Amino acid sequence: MNELTSGLLVFVLSYLCGSLPSGYIIGKFNGIDIRQYGSHNIGATNVRRVLGRDWSLICFTLDFLKGLLPVIFIGHSLGGQWPIGYSWGGIIAAIAAVLGHIFPIWLKFKGGKGVATSLGVVAGIAFVPVLIGGLAWLIVFHFSRMVSLASMVAVSVIALVALVMQFTSGSIGWPGVILLAIIAALVIIRHKDNIKRIHDGTESKFEKKSNDTPEAKGAK
Description:
Blueprint: H1 3-18, H2 22-29, H3 44-51, H4 53-81, H5 86-102, H6 115-125, H7 127-144, H8 147-168, H9 174-190, H10 192-200, E1 205-208, E2 214-217
Antiparallel strand pairs: 1-2
Helix pairs in contact: 1-4, 1-5, 3-4, 4-5, 4-6, 5-6, 5-9, 6-7, 6-9, 7-8, 8-9
């Protein structure tokens, strides 16, 4: 097996893991096609809007794991034993898992926006930037109540922190920095409709009822 073949195997296996449509499966388990409700997206935000917080947490966790686990077990573990190597194996696995979530073969290449899966893959590559990005998400969401805005800020912060860490300590590696920049760009591009709604002042916001159950207002 040469580097090209091993890299292709890592990519395909990771893509298949990332393409498992968690939100769609959760919707079917509850007797609905989640794509027909709310924002018509299969991500955790729409699952929360339609099916509630508990199912949303399950969806987010599954989407996160289908990014993290391919990086660890396919990219790093298998790739480390194959000619592609540990570092590039992780990078290829990360890209493939995110692409699998955004463009799943099982749903005619129409998937989610890649936020939770992106967090999973970068957690496997750059843990500290993920922690800082998570904090940025919480702060932006607290003040804006917009998941889309918080998500775009978070992935941008993660990429920026990785770049700073690379310049100051070299601890991330340029392939990792480039990967995080690509992921941030993919996530932001997938939010192009949200960006327009934010600009128009019509983006969905989560507010709390008196019983503390979050509810989306003005869902698109």
